[in-house]
């Protein structure tokens, strides 16, 4: 079979494997064969920079090695061994411009970083491939190079201007809108995972500089995604340390697929713990993911739950633990307030085993086996949850209920034991300037848009035509506003933007981020940004100055950091130089007198911080469990399932895409895996609709539609379809079909009743 | 773990192999006989080394015509057997007809150019270019990538 025949044949029936479309398949033969044959490796005297990955919350450490072309090392034969973390994959190397000259750079996972020890995921492995280089016309053409504005309204062309002109233009319009309609007419949506320095800059400008309370994060609208867990601990901060993945006896994941989006954590758990029979894994997920399959293969469980019914399952598990008198009595007596409310709440008949099994779709035996494993491993289990709960109906209820389950089993603050969010993005917010009082009545920016109150929007490190819900309805409203975009790349926002501001990004300026296990690191700039791109915080400074707003005199990243850390006791000791010195292992927060606990809510924390929990009375609070009494799935999305919209759609994060769609997806080896968004549909539902694998289908909800390639698979149960979140292609974005209402905790809701039909 | 042990064994041999410079492989891509056609049966992997002893490879008859396949049915392909993630040796799973890395579960499809369909690997397995001469199969070069552990596919 030659190349052409192969490409044609791959379009038809390839079972459950990824399908190539014709358009993508071209690359299949060409790009990968163009890989270099003979690499230059970093020489001994290469310049070295400390980095952490630009993607997920695990925040693996990397090193950038920079050298002059031709001065690298050439090695014959194999130079390293299995799992050494020393191999330089050809994709780790790129040519970029530094100080005006072309250099070689190798971005290598750092084997001395305690988090990843030289490991990387499919996402981080592509870090170097995303770097700006004219040698890759594809990457270069995606980047924004210069400020651009539409001088005469939406129909006029975007033209290149100077930074000064762009700032002037924004300042004039903002001032006018504020004068005519008040400060809250100015809206801002920021990437809530964005680097620490720019995030602080925009929040300060918005709340203090402009006095506006109209804002949202890309994943949430009001309150916080951690509400259900902070209700218990007084903070949503992740409490474990990465080593726990190797020592825990039982991992319980609910709505978080660590294999695909906390990959290096899962690698450590799998290789050193699960696969060698030292630990078990219970995975609670509507989808039968690879992680779920591995959990079962190694003696654990996959609880394939009906989406959104987690509060019932957690309630039933709590009830069983209590009935068996198997909760950690010492722990509860010493540290927990409100346990009697738990006992009382789970007495409700809806938490009986029979009912829970019926409501969640999980066989009774599996629920019982799960309880058994949880009891057997109490005090030695990691209970982790994330967006699968947080971005679904009744987020608070689900999150709080799982927290209570983990807590009463004593899985708090011990080696290999925690009850915590897993996390999604790295931590980028350490100081939150005081919000204007109007916030109290101005929680939902969508409402402001709908009522015509929001006249301007600044999309700041966030693609608002992609990362927000219910876009079919809200995108046109956002398009009408005076739209300022700060981004590193061209996106669909170009079509409506009044101003495009090019951002210098990872590698091009000094940044700060923290991992979910609380390590703060400086990510050093090691190359020139393209064109006139500037760090996002400088965009804010320029506009603030033009508006005559004081308090934005920062000259360097260090200045911004110093202001941030002066406002947060947890990090105030971490000055720029000590952070630089701490390299890829960084410094951990909370830090008191140079000491930081490995785990929160631990003896160590009590010793260092003088308290064990962040609550006022230094206790864990489980009283809010009573919200479960009113929980009824039908009140939420399930109430919208009808003969017209008989299926429930959920989204999931794709390993090769998660957090990276804007950059890494475009590299060969990744997009050939998943050239188009796909929709998982159970064989029963597919047959009823005449849908087969490889066929384009439309997913239609009461709120809009999107398209995807069908994959008929029993990875999803009958009645449920699933598609990846944030797929980087037009019309393949699930958010054009999602619901407009944020969940009870203000986070964005991504379950929706729908119908699916062939395109 | 069984598969880990294989990794360790491999480590051991590597140590020896790299200590002794081998002349079996010239510095340029060269022909190495892998097997006689008659000895190859569908879905039964054959191990060999290419381009030198430090780099194990795997030959597979997929039983049907596949991308870049050689032999009478154009069904025979070969790949570096070291995972492109961190170098663990991959295993052929005859049920799914996929190459699976036991360390962090990267999964490659030998029928589709060795592309990675799951897991942390960021590229396909380098493909060993095969040639049929008479009744035997020879490895004659490497395409699409660099074999794990090396910076060049040329032999010592
Ligand atoms: S696990 Fe996360 S931080 Fe680590 S390399 Fe992958 S994307 Fe980057
Ligand atoms: S070494 Fe193969 S998946 Fe990691």
CATH superfamily of the largest domain in chain B: Rieske [2Fe-2S] iron-sulphur domain
Tally the helices of chain A: what do you get?
Answer: 24
Instruction: List the bound ligands.
Output: iron/sulfur cluster, FE2/S2 (inorganic) cluster
- Per DSSP E runs of 2 or more residues, the count of β-strands of chain A stands at 27
Q: Proportion of β residues of chain B?
A: 25-35%
CATH topology of the largest domain in chain B: Rieske Iron-sulfur Protein
Shape of chain B: globular
Overall pLDDT confidence of chain B? 83
Order of helices and strands of chain B: HEEEEEEEEEE
Q: Give the biggest beta sheet of chain A.
A: 7 strands, mixed
Number of structurally distinct domains of chain A: 4
Q: Which two chains form the greatest contact, residue counts included?
A: A-B, 59 and 56 residues
Cα end-to-end separation of chain B: 32 Å
Describe this structure in words.
The complex is a heterodimer of chains A (759) and B (156). Chain A is α/β, with parallel strands linked by helices and 759 residues long. Chain A has four domains: 3-142, Immunoglobulin-like (Sandwich); 148-223 and 442-588, Rossmann fold (3-Layer(aba) Sandwich), CATH 3.40.50.740; 227-421, Dimethylsulfoxide Reductase, domain 2; 636-758, Barwin-like endoglucanases. Chain A has a seven-stranded mixed β-sheet, sandwiched between helices. Chain A has a six-stranded mixed barrel with strand order 22-26-23-25-24-27. In chain A, strands 11-10-9-13-14 form a five-stranded parallel β-sheet. In chain A, strand 24 and strand 25 (704-712) form a beta hairpin. In chain A, helix 5 packs across helix 21 (557-565) and helix 11 runs parallel beside helix 17. The longest helix of chain A is centred in the first third of the chain and has 19 residues, at 163-181. Chain A is globular and about 70 Å long. Chain A starts with a helix and ends with a strand. Residues 1-27 of chain B have low confidence and may be disordered. In chain B, 12% of the residues lie in helices and 31% in strands. In chain B, the strands form three sheets. In chain B, strands 5-6-7-8 form a four-stranded antiparallel β-sheet, with no helix packed on it. A three-stranded antiparallel β-sheet of chain B has the order 1-10-9, with no helix packed on it. In chain B, strands 2-3-4 form a three-stranded antiparallel β-sheet, with no helix packed on it. In chain B, strand 9 (127-133) and strand 10 form a beta hairpin. Chain B folds into two domains: 1-29; 32-143, 3-layer Sandwich (Rieske Iron-sulfur Protein). Chain B has 156 residues and is mainly beta. Chain B is built from one helix and ten strands; from the N terminus they run αββββββββββ. The complex binds iron/sulfur cluster and FE2/S2 (inorganic) cluster (FES). Iron/sulfur cluster binds next to helix 9 of chain A. Residues 83, 85-88, 101, 103-104, 106, 119-121 of chain B line the site of FE2/S2 (inorganic) cluster (FES).
